[in-house]
Specification:
Layout lengths: L20 E5 L4 H12 L3 E6 L2 H14 L6 E5 L5 H15 L4 E4 L15 H24 L11 E6 L12 H21 L3 E8 L8 H14 L8 H12 L10 E4 L17
Parallel strand pairs: 1-2, 1-4, 2-3, 4-5, 5-6, 6-7
Helix pairs in contact: 1-7, 3-4, 4-5
Length: 278
């Protein structure tokens, strides 16, 4: 048994990301930032992408100043639904840092809230482009341009940030949740297509206190927390810990799976009301 795969507690490298290159889409805030911070603390070179340059630069400065780690932090402006942007991003990453070892498909959008029959084409397509097609195009680019899973590279990891919304009915965000359900299916499909050189897994969070869920959190935090078995909402750090597990040999025999992190929301009795999720 190699040092990297020896039992936990017997090797200082177990769960380490030193020497690895991780790309986190939507990494300037919320869950993406929490994952990037955890990867940096574990020793990785971390690349964060987002559409807004100022927010991205500020996030990179915070990561460098507030999170100790030996690796570099590289911010790159890119749209998660743009295949050309993905190619350009991974070309720069490979030139600056070397082959990518981990991709986190975290960036998401939700421009529509309301019943499905009120959904217009423009917002429907935008949601699919980022949440669903973006997962495919960024994974493809990571492999073909970034070197993820190359024969001369370590076994790669893809971590998709889905949602428990992909498993339930939730008023107002049915279309968003449909794209998250698609992410869960695509995770299994890509695990089959990309093995054994790349492992593909997902995280399905419940309500996490981020900007994306700000309206829900402000209006209903006490109600939501009172219902959950663990009596609190999730944090970006909670998701970061799970992402580290999926990105390293801690989960070396795991692919095509989804970890649910929801404080126990899916364990609630059906009769409980007002159980909105993110």
């Amino acid at each position: 048994m190699s040092e990297q795969t020896s039992a936990a507690g017997t090797s200082p490298s177990y769960g380490s990301m030193e020497g690895q290159v991780a790309v986190v889409t939507g990494g300037s805030r919320g869950i993406g930032y929490g994952i990037a911070a955890r990867f940096r603390a574990a020793g990785a070179d971390v690349v964060i992408t987002a559409r807004k340059e100022n927010a991205l630069r500020d996030a990179a400065e915070r990561l460098t100043a507030e999170v100790a780690g030996p690796g570099r932090v590289l911010p790159l402006v890119a749209h998660a639904g743009d295949s050309a942007a993905a190619d350009a991003c991974f070309a720069e990453v490979r030139a600056e840092l070397g082959a990518v070892t981990t991709l986190v498909n975290n960036a998401a959008t939700n421009p529509y809230f309301g019943p499905l029959l009120g959904l217009d084409e423009a917002r429907a397509l935008k949601t699919v482009q980022v949440n669903q097609y973006g997962l495919v195009t960024w994974t493809r680019s990571a492999v073909e341009v970034g070197g993820l899973g190359a024969p001369d590279a370590p076994v790669g990891a893809v971590v998709n940030i889905a949602s428990i919304g992909g498993r339930i009915v939730d008023p107002g965000i049915g279309w968003y949740n449909a794209t998250k359900a698609a992410m869960l299916l695509l995770t299994r499909q890509l695990a089959w297509e990309l093995g054994p050189r790349i492992r593909v897994n997902a995280i399905a969070p419940g309500v996490v206190a981020t900007e994306l869920a700000a309206e829900v959190v402000r209006a209903r935090r006490e109600v939501l927390e009172a219902q959950l078995p663990l009596r609190r909402l999730g944090t970006p750090e909670d998701i970061g810990h799970a992402a580290l597990f999926l990105a390293t040999e801690l989960s070396g025999w795991m692919t095509g799976q989804a970890i649910v992190l929801d404080g126990g929301a899916l364990a609630l009795p059906i009769a409980v009301e007002d159980g909105a999720t993110s």
